[in-house]
Amino acid sequence: MPLPANPARLKSRPEKIGLGNELCGKGLHPLGLDDARDALLYVPESCAESARQPLVVSLHGAGGSATHGIDLFRWLADQRGFLLLAPPSRQQTWDVIRGGYGPDVRFIDTALAVVFRRCHPGAGSIALAGFSDGASYALSFGLANGELFRSILAYSPGFLAPPQMEGAPDIFVSHGTDDRVLRIDRCSRRIVPALELQGRRVVYREFEGGHTMPPEIASAGIDLFLSHSAQCGGLEPASISHRPK
User: Fold this and answer.
1) Which CATH number fits domain 22-239: 3.40.50.1820, 2.70.70.10, 3.10.580.10, 3.40.50.150?
2) What are the structural domain ranges in the chain?
3) What is the mean pLDDT of the chain?
C-alpha cells in the first residue's frame, strides 16, 4: 500500500523558483505575509551578493515571535554571512504541539517561496534551527523535509514527532544538564539515542547550564552546518560529541 501523504512536507524548492528576481537589500525585511505575525528575513552586511548564500531558518520557543527567531542567530549571521529567516508560529507555539501539522507548515512554505525568489540559497545550503519548542519542531518538521534541509540544529528540544522521514540531514543537538524546563534525562538523552538507532548522523553537545543557548553552543551548531554546506562532507559525530560518562 502507498504511504499516506506527508502532512509536514514542504513544496518550495530553490531550483523550482527563479533566483534573484526580487532581490532584497541588506537589513531586516518583513515578508508581508501577515499583518499580525509576519515572517522576517535578515540579510547581513557580510552576506555575499553573487555567490549562493547559506540560509538558516530559525524557529522561536513557546510564546515567541519572528523577532525572537531573528535574535537567536542574528549576531552569528553578522559574523558568518548567512541569510536568516524567522517564520513565527500561527498560534502561541508550533502546530504539531497543539494537535497536528497544518497552518505552520503552510506558512513556512509560503515564506520559503518568497525567500527563494529574492535570494540565492543553494539546494544543499539550508539549515533548520530552533530553541526549546522550536527545537522540537525543527527536529520533527526537519526530518519530514530532510531533502530540503542540509542540517537540523536543535537547541534544548523536548520531543521528536515526524510524521514521515526523508533524506539524511546532519543533526546537531544541545542541552543543558541543569535544564529545569525540559529536563535532559527525559528529552535529549532519549532523543539522541533514538536518532542514532536509526543510523542518523548526530552531533550531541551537553553543557553545564539551564534552559538556554550559550554563545559557544549556538556557534558550534551553526559552524557545523556551514562547514558541511561548504564541503559537502562533515566530521564524524564521535569527534566532537560530548556525553556524560
Assistant:
1) 3.40.50.1820
2) 22-239
3) 89
